[in-house]
Amino acid sequence: MNIDGCPTRTIRLAADGETVEVIDQTRLPHEVVVRPLASLADAAEAIRTMVVRGAPLIGVTAAYGLALAMREDASEAGLAHAVETLAATRPTAVNLRWALDRMAAALGRPEVNDRTAEAYRLAAAMADEDVETCRAIGVHGAALLREAHARTGREVNVLTHCNAGWLATVDWGTALAPIYVAHDEGIPLHVWVDETRPRNQGAALTAFELRQHSIRHTIVADNAGGHLMQHGRVDLCIVGSDRTTATGDVANKIGTYLKALAAKDNGVPFYAALPSSTIDWTLADGVAEIPIEERPAREVTHMTGRAETGGIVTVEIASPGSPAANPAFDVTPARLVTGIITERGIASASTAGLAALFPREAGRV
Ligand code: MRU
Fold first, then answer.
1. Is 242 a catalytic residue?
2. Residue list, annotated binding site
3. Dmax over Cα atoms in the chain, in whole Å?
4. Residue list, annotated binding site for substrate
5. pLDDT in tens, 5-21
6. Going by C-beta distance under 8 Å and a sequence separation of 6 or more, which residues neighbour residue 308?
7. What angle do CA 51, 271, 93 make, to 5 degrees?
8. Which of 242, 278, 326 should be mutated for ligand 1, with most atoms under 8 A from CB?
9. Reported pTM
10. Predicted ipTM of the assembly
11. Which residues are tagged with the site Transition state stabilizer (predicted)?
């Protein structure tokens, strides 16, 4: 996608061929800052502090993190330490574990004699694969928007939560990929952007992306979705996912479940768009089994933004001293999900639906 007309990916290699460069998402939408990652510690810190975020991008950053780690210590012990360090950064997005397992298995092969070079090669391949996967999600999901437009004959209103756009992946995004493809085809669209408290990924990142791509959108407070659906102002919801069970339960940013409940009550189709690397084939019950990240209370009690006088400021918005809790994700049970948009097509949110598209992966468990 583009920032100010320049084609951009969220992660790339610097000109020295070794340093990894990422867009610092804690500074968006106010400033576009490219941050260099030069070590395992840098990569782990970038994931932990959400300089990079979004399940697929976390996975690819971890892959590059292993490459950086191999420069420091390419021994068996060095590889194990790097995998452990990166795996501990964020617990919910399974793409992190998926990428690390894939990298570790490949780097552990006896015929690999230069682990560092191989790690860079694999990480770059994973980044390219992510782009292709997300583009395919966009092509499959765009059919839903085309159908909605054909049925209503008017602009299609899509509601999305958090940021599952290109900033959350290497390029294209998951939930926003169908929107980009459909928009480029000329289908008239308008996106309701949930602000997504507490970190405001919707208001800050999704709105930034859509504006850069000239797609009509409106930011709404998180609690507005139900009201909009009751009044027929949402044709469909599309969200991303951080971990999806083999049975079709979908973990995504906190608040997603409430949107799915409102969608069910109002007969609004509710889709999750995700690459197969987000499916945890070992899990059957998302509510019971998916680990939910608990983030600092300060993200709830404080907000960061640009002051009207300029400059980025953080202000306290809560009653000083009151305790706050910050579960970062929730699980939407499969029964509330109309379909799962993947790189291979749209599946029903069920064991049979996902297995029909991914028989090899589903059969491994
Ligand atoms: O905490 P974040 O910003 O990493 O959470 C991101 C989300 O919840 C996204 O919807 C999800 O990772 C899908 S990204 C394509």
1. yes
2. 53-55, 90, 201, 252-253
3. 62
4. 53-55, 90, 201, 252-253
5. 999 999 999 999 999 99
6. none
7. 30
8. 242
9. 0.97
10. 0.98
11. 162
